[in-house]
């Protein structure tokens, strides 16, 4: 049987729409289930107190603080390094062998499984540099993991700034560095920030890289230095779900909800920043 | 005649493709040189060799010499300092996304000038010279992107003047403008040549004839001929020049 083009068009439209809706489904179900089961656990006490009775009662404050420390540390390490690398790659390096090798390295770095980053962090930061299992080791490991995200998005943002802005700036007697700082970076900033925050979201949620480098199983106190171990939300969630018997479901779901909310909040921030800058620029 | 720029046997290639072939000419100080020719004739390439903006293009190679006041641009000059002496106005006005004031002082700030009084004086002077002061004096804080196309182009001229150049290159400065804005820019150019040396690349032969003291005709990367504007437009020596200005091709 043959369909008329009109009917074919309708069928194609239906298939494409269905495919798009299927994407929504898992996200919707995950968020729904976590909200439904976890919302009951959220209370002031849950967010601000130490865990008690082998993590079966009390709050998750040290895990929230630990995740916050790790993410901040990863960012402090990866943002400047990634941004400088991106600037070098897009503004200075020509299409030479070194540049191609670096690009290849970045692609490979992005493809490395996170558990390998964990082992890498264990070998390099924990053992070789003798940082021990500490916030420093964990932050650096997470930082290395999000480097490719930051470099790639920053480079794309820099390269999307029209060449004419560079020409104008140089033609007015600015040096190349001044041109990058005053005529290119301001335009690339929203893209750089978006990529960075997406990277941060990933750092906040990963378990494997912190498993061997920082995460404490049960440590009911707040970290006081860079060389302290710390709890972190993703690992805490893993522990609650598999290692500790008889944990109330709502505590597990509550932990998942807090983690989800933090990551979601970061992504929303990225979107808000991007749309704010988009509304201001025009060329 | 007072020679400002001397070009000798200048050739430019982009990744092996020839864009400019063996151009030799002299550009007079305090005059306007019109450069005409069809698309792809090397006009803009020629212009951009004069302040080394071609350096930015990957795969460019320049041979021959260009002297500015007797100094070899490609040997004895720092391109950054050179571009302060040789400014350029592009075809599309491209104000930076900042205020009118900040656009004008962009070049000065990059030279490290911070004194507010110096900057304010420079802004007023540059805007007056670009015939923009009366329209802009109460709008200095406004975003430059809100100005009309003609105002933006005059702002770009003011921005270049603020750096205090000696030579100003115009790369089809009116191609995106209406006749009235065009007239204002031409008026500004005629005034500016008292203090600056101007080179105007244009697709508009009438504009070349209106403002140019001398006119150079480029075709396929070669300088076909160059002479006093009235001579080029009334009695060109080369048949190809005649064909172009009488509109047989182009």
Commentary on this structure:
The complex is a heterodimer of chains A (283) and B (250). Chain A is mostly helical and 283 residues long. Chain A is built from eleven helices and two strands. Chain A has a two-stranded antiparallel ribbon with strand order 1-2. In chain A, a hairpin with a 4-residue loop joins strand 1 (51-52) and strand 2. In chain A, helix 3 (61-92) packs antiparallel against helix 8 (176-205) and helix 10 (233-242) packs antiparallel against helix 11. Chain A is globular and about 70 Å long. With 250 residues, chain B is an alpha/beta fold. Chain B has helices spanning 43-49, 79-85, 100-110, 116-129, 133-136, 149-162, 179-192, 205-211, 229-234, 239-245; strands spanning 3-14, 17-28, 32-36, 60-68, 71-72, 86-89, 167-171, 197-201, 214-219, 222-228. In chain B, helix 7 (179-192) links the parallel strand 7 (167-171) and strand 8 (197-201). In chain B, helix 3 packs parallel to helix 6, helix 4 packs across helix 6 and helix 6 (149-162) packs parallel to helix 7 (179-192). Chains A and B meet through helix 7 and helix 8 of A and helix 2, helix 3 and helix 6 of B.
What structural class is derived from the secondary structure elements of chain A? mainly alpha
Which two protein chains have the largest interface (Cβ within 8 Å of the partner's Cβ), and how many residues from each?
A: A-B, 24 and 24 residues
Give the CATH level 1 class of chain B. Alpha Beta
Secondary-structure element string of chain A: HHEEHHHHHHHHH
């Amino acid at each position: 049987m043959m369909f008329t083009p009109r009917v074919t068009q309708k069928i194609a439209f239906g298939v494409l729409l269905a495919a798009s809706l299927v994407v929504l489904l898992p996200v919707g179900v995950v968020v729904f289930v976590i909200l439904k089961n976890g919302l009951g656990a959220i209370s002031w006490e849950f967010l601000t107190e130490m865990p008690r009775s082998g993590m079966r009662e009390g709050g998750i404050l040290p895990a929230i603080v630990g995740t916050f420390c790790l993410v901040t540390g990863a960012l402090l390490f990866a943002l400047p390094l990634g941004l400088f690398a991106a600037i070098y790659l897009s503004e200075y390096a020509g299409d030479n062998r070194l540049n191609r090798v670096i690009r290849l390295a970045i692609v490979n770095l992005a493809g490395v499984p996170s558990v390998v980053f964990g082992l890498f962090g264990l070998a390099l930061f924990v053992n070789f540099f003798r940082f021990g299992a500490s916030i420093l080791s964990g932050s650096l490991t997470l930082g290395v993991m999000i480097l490719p995200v930051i470099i790639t998005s920053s480079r794309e943002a820099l390269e999307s700034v029209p060449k004419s802005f560079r020409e104008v700036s140089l033609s007015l007697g600015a040096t190349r560095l001044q041109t990058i700082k005053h005529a290119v970076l301001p335009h690339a900033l929203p893209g750089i920030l978006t990529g960075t925050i997406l990277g941060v979201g990933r750092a906040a949620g990963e378990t494997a890289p912190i498993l061997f480098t920082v995460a404490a199983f049960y440590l009911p106190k707040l970290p006081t230095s860079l060389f302290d171990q710390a709890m972190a939300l993703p690992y805490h969630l893993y522990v609650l779900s598999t290692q500790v018997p008889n944990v109330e479901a709502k505590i597990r779901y509550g932990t998942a909800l807090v983690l989800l909310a933090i990551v979601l909040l970061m992504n929303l921030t990225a979107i808000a920043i991007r749309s704010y800058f988009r509304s201001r620029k025009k060329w | 005649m007072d020679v400002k720029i001397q070009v000798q046997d200048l050739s430019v290639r982009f990744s092996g493709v020839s864009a400019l072939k063996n151009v030799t000419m002299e550009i007079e100080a305090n005059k306007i040189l019109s450069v005409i020719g069809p698309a792809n004739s090397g006009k803009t390439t020629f212009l951009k060799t004069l302040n080394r903006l071609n350096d930015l293009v990957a795969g460019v190679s320049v041979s021959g010499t260009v002297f500015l006041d007797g100094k070899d641009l490609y040997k004895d000059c720092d391109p950054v300092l050179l571009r302060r002496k040789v400014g350029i106005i592009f075809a599309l006005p491209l104000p930076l996304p900042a205020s009118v004031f900040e656009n004008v002082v962009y070049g000065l700030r990059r030279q490290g000038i911070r004194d507010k009084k110096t900057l304010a004086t420079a802004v007023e002077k540059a805007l007056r010279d670009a015939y923009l002061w009366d329209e802009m004096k109460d709008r200095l804080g406004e975003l430059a992107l809100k100005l009309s196309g003609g105002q933006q182009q005059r702002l770009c001229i003011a921005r270049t003047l603020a750096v205090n150049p000696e030579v100003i290159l115009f790369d089809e400065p009116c191609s995106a403008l209406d006749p009235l804005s065009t007239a204002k820019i031409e008026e500004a150019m005629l005034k500016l040549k008292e203090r600056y040396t101007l080179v105007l690349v244009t697709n508009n032969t009438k504009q070349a004839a209106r403002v140019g003291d001398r006119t150079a005709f480029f075709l396929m990367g070669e300088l076909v001929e160059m002479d006093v504007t009235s001579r080029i437009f009334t009695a060109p020596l080369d048949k190809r020049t005649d064909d172009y200005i009488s509109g047989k091709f182009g």
